[in-house]
Amino acid sequence: MGLVVGSFLNVVIYRLPLMMDSRWRKDCCELLELEHKQDSDTSLSLSHPNSHCPHCKAGIKPWQNIPVLSYLFLGGKCGNCGAAISIRYPIVELATALMTLALMLQYDASPELLGAMIFTWSLISLTMIDIDHHLLPDDITLPLLWLGLAFSVFGASVSLSDAVLGAMLGYLSLWSVYWLFKLATGKEGMGYGDFKLLAALGAWLGWQSIPMIILLSSLVGAAVGIALMVATKRGKDAPIPFGPYLAMAGWITLMWGDTILAFYMGATGLNS
Q1: Which stretch of DSSP H or E encloses residue 209?
Q2: What is the pLDDT of residues 240-265, one digit of tens each?
Q3: CA distances (Å), origin 235, targets 53, 66, 135
Q4: What's the pLDDT score for residue 57?
Q5: CA–CA separation, 71 vs 75, rounded Å?
Q6: pLDDT digit string (tens) for 15-63?
Q7: What are the distances in angstroms from CA 68 to CA 49, 64, 96, 148, 169?
Q8: How many Å apart are CA 208 and CA 163, to the nearest integer?
């Protein structure tokens, strides 16, 4: 099931930004009272057209669209034109499968497991889109936020009060950092999508998780940022998406948050 969902997530990751860009262009033309020229992305949706090779446009046959296995059988190349297929597709499929398996080993069959899977699949999509486009679409972050609150109402995640406080604290904490940084430097340090993502994480995991998520994401983000500057000689002003680190920290907190907190409390003697 995780492999199949991962295959669909690849479609979301690739097509959703194109659909948003086409929608923005159309809205801008209407606002400026300009003629909107139809393009290939105008009719694009998550279900239409069928999957095809981006190079030769040949449709992908069902047996060429089996997650991971088709990539191996085809040798990583299009079955029609021989163009290389990005290895990222099977990696996303395999990662989704392994993370889904980890959830099924962690949770009993329950609404809590369903929520954890939706939560995880959404984070995978947001991570890859942010890496590609420095964008965290409202089409994913806002439904994720409201679903977190909805699951809390029915007791499938944290309590409703913890979820509401988590959403508020998640949004306002990064919103405050954004404005303090902007007032101090005149620059924008992060995007509004980061606020909404942390609000969604707070809605699913509760307000108690916010400090851990911010700390983990900041540590990983700083380490990766420094490594990228050293490895690629990028300047310190080069933008680095923060969404993937928030998503990573959120998933780690979902899976092992209580263990990490217990270890910290024990190591520091705060639980004595």
Answers
A1: none
A2: 899 999 999 999 999 998 888 888 77
A3: 36, 41, 21
A4: 79
A5: 6
A6: 999 999 988 888 888 888 888 776 655 678 888 878 888 778 788 888 8
A7: 22, 10, 11, 31, 40
A8: 10
> Tokens standing for 4?
């199949």
3-state secondary structure of 59: strand
Sign of CA dihedral 146, 152, 157, 159: positive
52 touches 58 (CB < 8 A): yes
Taking residue 220's Cβ as centre, other Cβ atoms within 10 Å add up to: 16
Closest Cα partner for 109 from 196, 203, 234, 1? 1
The tokens of 103 are what?
């959830």
Residue 208 carries which side chain, given as an amino acid letter?
Q
**Spatial distance between the Cα atoms of 205 and 199, rounded to a whole number of angstroms:** 10
Entry pTM: 0.90
Mean pLDDT throughout 174-185? Answer: 91
Looking at the DSSP bridge assignments, the partners of residue 52 are 59
Do residues 149 and 142 lie in contact, with contact meaning Cβ atoms separated by under 8 Å?
no
How confident is the model over 168-186, as a mean pLDDT?
92
Residue 208 is given by DSSP the state: G
